[in-house]
Specification:
The chain is mainly β. The chain contains no helices and 19 strands. The chain has one domain (22-293).
Length: 320
């Protein structure tokens, strides 16, 4: 099971009242097919993609963010393994795949550095009825692609819900620039996984963490067997720049259609030629896991800790 990979700043999610209790859930991974039902405590996702999207007329580029500014983050990944209650892998499908797509709004609670490197914080906000607040799991043929960003929301939808709280941090790295002005972030190629599929795009270097709670609104009973009436997911994701464990995605599912990240012939580039600086959006490598809880906390009952995808203060553009 993956443990806090390439993370610059950690955020701990705590309960204001009674602590939530992790549980295991009985899952039939192929709904009566050749695979037996499993007792699952954690869904461990492969390294995937996230895109933070600025509101119309705004930007998430350095120097153009501030406390109180909201934006939307979209993410997706395929399942790595089903894990038991102790966190140990128990099964990985070989002829089909489980995938998730997610969307949630965030608001900056801290923008603390002048030139682009340093820490930012934000919280997950929004209502259950918002179109950009969703978490969905699908089962399908093995056809998802990190490079294109497509086929994560096809097949059979087996779980769906919405985010009720959460938060985290992000830190841009300036350690490689001792002779630059304080706060100048390190810069590198965006795609450092295998062949560089985006030779014209560079990125700031950094890392952060997202942690949130998803209230489960429904499940497919053929896959989730005997689940409790109240069910939530503790969702955790570590963000990293640059991409070193998977390809940056060209497209992201928004719940209504596809939006470009790094971009290709199907989806326009929305991050520019210097991810995190050129804007208006910012894209991140994301490594997620989801554990189950047997009750759903009230919105706001957990400590909100800010989540890190963006906020890079004002900075001068660094030549690469």
């Amino acid at each position: 099971m993956k443990k806090l990979l390439s993370i610059a700043v950690l955020a701990a999610l705590g309960a204001a009242g009674q602590a939530q209790a992790s549980i295991t859930v009985n899952i039939d991974p192929d709904a009566g097919g050749s695979n037996s039902a499993l007792n699952v405590g954690t869904l461990d996702w492969t390294v995937g993609n996230a895109l933070s999207v600025a509101n119309s007329g705004e930007s998430l580029a350095a120097g153009r963010t501030g406390v109180g500014q909201t934006f939307t983050t979209y993410a997706m990944a395929r399942l790595s393994t089903f894990n038991d209650g102790a966190g140990d892998p128990v099964f990985l499908p070989s002829t089909y795949e489980w995938t998730f797509v997610a969307g949630f709004r965030e608001v900056f609670t801290q923008v603390s550095f002048p030139l682009g490197a340093g820490a930012s914080k934000f919280n997950i906000v929004g209502s259950a009825a918002a179109a950009d607040n969703f978490f969905e799991i699908y089962v399908s043929a093995k056809d998802s692609s990190n490079l294109t960003g497509k086929n994560y929301n096809n097949g059979i939808r087996v779980l769906w819900g919405h985010f009720i709280n959460g938060g985290g941090t992000f830190t841009a790295d300036e350690s490689a620039n001792p002779n630059d002005a304080a706060g100048t972030p390190e810069i590198g190629a965006l795609d450092q996984f295998g062949s560089n599929n985006y030779a014209g795009i560079n990125t700031i270097i950094g890392g952060g963490r997202t942690q949130g709670t998803v209230a489960v609104d429904g499940v497919d009973g053929s896959y989730f067997l005997g689940t409790p009436s109240s069910l939530s997911l503790n969702f955790t994701s570590e963000q990293t720049l640059a991409y070193k464990q998977t390809d940056p995605a060209a497209c992201f599912w928004t719940g209504a259609g596809y939006l470009g990240g790094a971009g290709n012939a199907d989806c326009a580039n929305t991050i520019g030629t210097l991810n995190g600086i050129s804007g208006p959006n910012i894209q991140l490598q994301a490594d997620a896991s989801s554990s189950f809880d047997g009750r759903v906390p009230e919105p706001g009952s957990l400590a909100l800790l800010g989540l890190g995808f963006v906020a890079f203060g004002a900075m001068r553009r660094k030549a690469v």
